[in-house]
Amino acid sequence: MGRGRKWETLQDEALVRAYLDLSQNAIQGAEQKAASFWDSILNRFNNATKPKKEEVRTAQALRNRWSSISHNVAKFVGCYSVIKARNESGKSADDVMKDTRLLFREQQGSEFSFESCWLILQKCPKFMDGIRTRGSGSNAGVAGEVEKERPTGRKKAKTDLAAEIEDSKKLKQLVDDNKERNSVIFAQMKRKNDLIEEQLTMDLFKTDPNSEESKTFFSFMRKKRLASIMDREAARELGACKTNVKTHLSQMPM
């Protein structure tokens, strides 16, 4: 297929599957050079898509397409995590996907066109955790070593490789950031739910404040609040004491 020809969804899926299969094959990939790695992907891609002679793509074309796919999927993963973290009541899985597509379009200014690729990649923990960095040690061949060709070609291959590794690092950072953000959101939601539950319980016992159950409950709550206040005061005094000790030690002659 000539340069610039439109990619079909089935071709994108074939490329993603070929990349995942070969990148996770440690035995085959350990000593591969980058160009050889992409030649292997090209072979698998051609076997899967059966292109006509005039429609055959190059290994470099596949490499460029993969870079675009991985970059956009990383952005979509971030949007999906944000929508999931909202944990909106009554939202179905279809609603979550719809909101994710809208958020992606708002942030990127275009539709997400690699959803079928994302569905494949999300089943690969290594990709979704962003740990596809392959540029060191005995695995350097798969990630970064290129064929010994003329200097201009070698430089371009290294530049392309650096871009791929950078996308991988960004994906990992994006996932880590979303995990941290989700943790904060969930903690806030739990605190809010606890407060609501406590208020509802208090309202229940207030309906008959003179009952033995109500008296027992409010006595327990007073003790609980008092213990909480005492704990905070003790922590404050301990912090002040540590500060005073540090100040005293810093003023002592050496």
TrEMBL record:
Residues 136-222 form the No apical meristem-associated C-terminal domain. This is No apical meristem-associated C-terminal domain-containing protein. Coiled coil: none annotated. Residues 138-157 are annotated as: Disordered. InterPro entries: NAM-associated_C. Residues 145-157 have a biased composition (Basic and acidic residues).
